[in-house]
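Fold it.
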Amino acid sequence: MPNGLDGSEHTTFRQALDPFLSQQALAAYQADFELIAADLVASLPRGASVEAVREIGATFAVRAQSAWLNWSLDVESRLLDWIAENHSATRSGELARTARVATDFDDILRSVLAARRPDSTTPSDVTGQLLRVEVRGRRLTDAEIMSVLRNWTGGDLGSIALCVGVLVHHLANHPELQFRLRDGVPDNEMDLVIDEVLRLDDPFVSNRRVTTCPVDVAGVRLPEGARIKLNWTSANRDADVFGDPEAFDPAGHAANNLVYGIGKHACPGRLLSTIELRVVVRALLAGTATITLDPDAAAEREVAPVGGWARVPVLLH
């Protein structure tokens, strides 16, 4: 929910759920995210190897999401283990294994929701408000609530971890960009830079759709009911759109950047992800003089259908 819906049903659920992810709603949490990021960066060793995807990206993602949803940090270790197992299961392509991982995540969600059923004592935080959401005159079913939380958290946790890996790897390879960003740039410029780095090395390789009617795409006739894979990585490197796809042009490429999708089904969590990534990058730059790749531990690529990096060992100086 609501990714798997279409038409008026999709619109109705987006109208009910998107306010949780609006600028106004998220503004209240930015200071919490900044404190979490600063504390995390301060706790990391200097001059010793740090693995950016898990130790920085995944840890920050879990703590930021827990702050936003008001979840106990007691679930932190379970969520971190789940992120690692989910990436591994996805790489394996074994459907039975990915199904088990999905079930494991549902068990985590049930433990969080067990004591938070909607009654007069339910907190008025984001999780408590979700339990009270009404769509077309009724509250969401338990299955729908689980689906929404799976979308918000299961999707975001792994995504943020992978994005941080890509961003840290790029910064380590481009000290001149580190220097420019440390010198102080406004939020909108920082966001453009982050989006452009993710365009160049997109952790979100593809998505799937089913055609609802016959359609022509680039001269190819697709029938109704065709199963289509959308290759975001290829689209974000289309030379007909971007010219030289390796060129680094944050402002010039922004209008055609498809990291967060496009149209009615564009990622509802784009603003949340943008804030989180901006906050953690700023904290890393503020807490270091330089970030370099660890010469004694090679970075390891992710394997399709996952993009980005599985491991990015770096040294913080």
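The domain at 7-203+269-316 is CATH 1.10.630.10 (Cytochrome p450).
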